[in-house]
């Protein structure tokens, strides 16, 4: 006769796991000085409340709109110029780092010789280094080196994104069918010719959509980098935050949303046309 | 005709690139001029001798632990609030609550972490608490949306079976829906945690604690040796997270 068991057989292990997680996280509360109460405290609430209540109506003075327009254009220009510089470095680096154009790989079934792998390592290492330092750290460093303003933002985007684009391009080259390029190489064509006729036709669509996606990311990144003084919309948001000008912050955040939506539409258009 | 439009688009892109450089007034020739290059070289050289004294390393260790704690607690808070918001966002309590909670989630997600951090520094003061709250805010938006989609995609039959047997709504959710959902939730949480560790190390630039604040302070004081150690620590953290996540993915996530 079956009896109903109202007990949950998995209770004990779950309880133990939860206790373990709690024990690990408990010191974290001390280290992160977590205090949710500040959000509800009377004085900070009134401080915050006054700031947030200034959000409506968003600032829309003639002079401010002019400033906003300039900052938005600057953000777009930083992202575009940064991407252009990044491509200058990323395309040659990806060609150097990719195994797809290895002569020894063509005759050894896709595995380059030890020497070939050794020679590719410095380029790979450089790309890893460029993309491992976050872009905002690069921006902070460049603000110190070349001064406040959009130049630092452009250079920071160029450096981080060349690392990412170079790595991803090299991987895309390796991910498609290698036989056309290998047969071209073995028939005696140069590497560039083998790339242009053996690999590029297969990868063009993917390269393009990834590049456009990265441009979209660059716009978001250039807004964020403004917070360390690298120009554009972010710098204006930072300034207005420090002056507790809630209305200005609100209209700039709205502009940011519109900009992201706009970039999304442009990238959809480009992908649809070319890919 | 099609080709013409494509050609026009390419021309537009070229024009946009040229216009951007013009608009920003970036003169690459001046930037790479001999005097400027020498100055930048001298600046870079000062980074090449990182400060590895015991006291500084200890401070960095504390900063790294703070960064980890911020990311872990921020993600955990976000998971809890994300699940709470995901239930109405998946349409379980009627369309009114559904569209309201979706609006909240979109708003939370649309503002980048760094902007949240700047806002939270105003509300909660300088320090890691502001960073934790900022991470929690943005991640709640992201996780809430992912959870809501996962909730909508889980098969409803187990929960329905429990309801038909007379179990109440809570039992049906806990024993009918959650077991199916749990692996996916865990995968999302771990993925966001990974992102948040990286983010937490730079949130300090606006005063929200962790390694970022150390880097900002030491760069502002022109202590390049100390700053380069912090950058090295950030690199180690990023590599450790990358290694851990690829290992755990191979180990736990069956493809």
Structure description:
The complex is a heterodimer of chains A (275) and B (255). Chain A is mainly α. Chain A has one domain: MetI-like (MetI-like fold, Orthogonal Bundle), CATH 1.10.3720. Chain A has eleven helices and no strands. In chain A, helix 5 packs antiparallel against helix 7, helix 7 packs across helix 9 and helix 10 runs antiparallel to helix 11. Chain A starts with 10 loop residues before the first helix and ends with a helix. By secondary structure, chain B is mainly α. Chain B has one domain: Orthogonal Bundle (MetI-like fold), CATH 1.10.3720.10. Chain B is built from eleven helices and no strands. The radius of gyration of chain B is 24 Å and the shape is globular. The mean pLDDT of chain B is 88.
Q: How are the SSEs ordered, and which strands pair?
A:
The complex is a heterodimer of chains A (275) and B (255).
Chain A lengths: L10 H21 L10 H12 L8 H36 L5 H4 L7 H19 L2 H12 L3 H26 L3 H8 L4 H35 L7 H10 L3 H29 L1
Chain B lengths: L1 H23 L3 H4 L2 H12 L8 H36 L5 H16 L2 H12 L3 H26 L3 H8 L4 H35 L6 H11 L3 H29 L3
